[in-house]
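are you around this afternoon, could really use another pair of eyes. what follows is a protein written twice so to speak, once as letters and once as structure tokens for the fold. i want to understand how the tokens follow from the sequence so walk me through it. anything you notice is useful, everything is just below.
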Amino acid sequence: MARKPNYDFERRERDRLKAEKKAQRAAAKTDSRNPEADLDDQGETSDAEPTPSDPQNL
């Protein structure tokens, strides 16, 4: 015997997956538009001066 379809759940699941994929695409798009922002997050092109309390500067 075939299972009873659960249309509401299936639709919510499809919508959830679609929204997740859309969010990933939007994040990738913003990352590709701002390559400088990626470097700032990694600390490679930081313009801020080091603070004296920073252990790496001791």
Q: What stands out?
A: The chain has a mean pLDDT of 80. The two ends are 73 Å apart (CA to CA).
